[in-house]
Amino acid sequence: MNPVPEHAGPSATSRAGGALAGSAATTHTLGVPWEKDVEAAYFRNIPDEALVQSAAKPFSVPDRGRLLVEIGAVLSLLPEPPGRILDLGCGTGWTSSFLARSGYDVVGVDLSPEAVDTARAAFPLPSLAFAIHDFDEPLPRSFGLFDAVVFFDTLHHAEDERRPLRAAYLALRDGGVCVACEPGTGHAVSEGSIHAVATFGVRERDMTPPQVVAAGREAGFRAAAVHPHPHELHRNLYLHREPVSFRNRLLATVAGQAARVLRTVTVQRRHWGIVVLTK
Question: CA–CA separation, 265 vs 40, rounded Å?
Fold first, then answer.
């Protein structure tokens, strides 16, 4: 695989360049002022045991079933290996490791030096490299071009999703794909998001398929497809519900499950879904 510089692009604590016209550059998350250097410091500020737990995902967290379903869906939407994949906003690297173990040459990049150091220590795989890089900015040419780019629960942390999607577009070969698996409607006001914003000052936004498609089109992608979000299928079909109420007994029937699946693959795709963009 291509060599990866120790540091790529702007430093992890630098502010992004001038915002695109009409961007959310001056917006706040739930009323909390947001700064990129605060976002970059997230992995520095969490407890050491949480950093270790992050690298051990998906097996180290209670919602491991959901994460496994989601990464499985992402793998199914990627071109078959071999190929080069760029994992933008890789955090402590567990998604990058899944991609590398699936037969791809992978470069994972993240804004946080602590996250990248943890990823390098946790996943010393020959087909996997990590670099510190602000995903708002295009990768240096020395990285080469990729067959696919993945955003896995990361694009919703961007100040303006158009910037990382443009960086993804520029990193792809012609015909390459960008796969974005992001939380949709309601994420910003969830209990976990509110806690993260209040405690660490990070950005937590809804990132719906229409937002990703619109930003992708503006970035230059020629085609877009929205697939049902596996989180919704997992929640509706596999999570255990105590059948104590009439509603839960109804949802547990074959007809109830069929109705939930139909809703997930039709109307709910405006709110939650995996987006595949083609260059």
Answer: 35
Q: Work out whether strand 84-88 and strand 105-110 pair parallel, antiparallel, or are unpaired.
A: parallel
Q: Where are the beta strands (DSSP E) in the chain?
A: 84-88, 105-110, 128-132, 146-152, 172-181, 223-228, 273-278
Task: Report CA-CA distances (Å) from 275 to 145, 212, 213, 228.
Answer: 21, 7, 7, 9
pLDDT attached to residue 239? 67
- How much is the pTM? 0.80
Q: Residue 41's pLDDT band (boundaries 50, 70, 90)?
A: confident
Q: Is the dihedral of CA 154, 278, 104, 136 positive or negative?
A: negative
Q: Collect all residues with Cβ–Cβ distance below 8 Å to 156 and sequence separation of at least 6.
A: 182, 183, 187, 203, 204, 205, 206, 207
- Report the C-alpha gap between 229 and 66 in whole angstroms: 11
| Cα-based distances in Å from 240 to 92, 180, 248 | 30, 27, 10
Residue 244 corresponds to which tokens in the numbers above? 């104590």
Map residue 131 onto helix, strand or coil: strand
Q: Where are the alpha helices (DSSP H) in 138-253?
A: 162-171, 191-200, 209-219, 230-237, 246-251
SS3 for 73?
helix
CA 205 to chain centre: 12
Strand partners, 151: 180
Residue closest to 11 by CA, chosen among 87, 110, 94, 88: 110
- The tokens describing 67, both together, are 């994460």
Q: Express each pLDDT in 192-229 by its tens digit.
A: 767 776 776 677 788 899 999 999 999 999 999 999 88
